[in-house]
Amino acid sequence: MDKIKCPFCESKDLRFKREITSQLNNKKYKHWFCKNCYLEFFTPLIFEKEIYIDEIDSSYKEFHKGNRAVPDWTLEVIRILKNKFKIKDLSNKKILEVGAGDCINFVAFKEEFNISKENYYAIEFDDKSVETCKKRGVVNIINEFFDKNILEKRYKLVQKVT
After folding, report:
1. Which is the most buried residue in 37, 99, 124, 150, by most CB within 10 A?
2. How far is it, in rounded angstroms, from Cα 14 to Cα 127?
3. What are the φ/ψ torsions at residue 32 (nearest 5 degrees)?
4. CA 109/CA 85 separation, integer angstroms
């Protein structure tokens, strides 16, 4: 693990979550969680898009249908923002969600905090999930994934969002 760093914040403070074997090519991938910026990512960074699109992992079928319930962790984030930070309205703030999936978080945040579709940015590389995001009203979708050029992309995204 000495050489593994978060592709977003470059932290080495990581937690190994699991190892999976691709059903497409039998290649092994390690799933990591960055304790610094909370990003979850796989190594090697290049990951087969087909795992999501072809719904090899059955959970992606629910993403693609767009009828998944708001996850408990999203409800917890909303509770903390409302109760601890006393946030009632985020309509003038820009939000960037990395790995947006089916954009269920946009739906929840729009309802709770009046977030506009113009201020919500989603990064999602699964084409079927992108279509679900569009159906939910998200207009700023970056249809790319984390690769070896992520630091350059991160700078450009931050410039666009700020």
Report:
1. 124
2. 28
3. -120, 155
4. 15
The type of residue at 161 is V
Q: Measured between alpha carbons, how far is 49 from 117 in angstroms, rounded to an integer?
A: 26
Side chain identity at 31, as an amino acid letter?
H
Q: Which residues contact 54 (CB under 8 A, 6 or more apart)?
A: none
pLDDT tens figures, 58-112: 777 777 888 888 999 899 999 999 999 999 999 999 998 988 989 999 999 999 9
Backbone angles phi, psi at 28, to 5 degrees: -90, 140
Residue 62 tokens read as 């629910």
Say how many CA atoms lie within 13 Å of 65 toward its Cβ. Answer: 9
Tell which residue, 73, 30, 71, 59, has the closest CA to residue 128: 59
pLDDT in tens, 3-59: 899 887 889 999 999 998 887 778 898 999 999 988 888 888 766 666 666 776 677
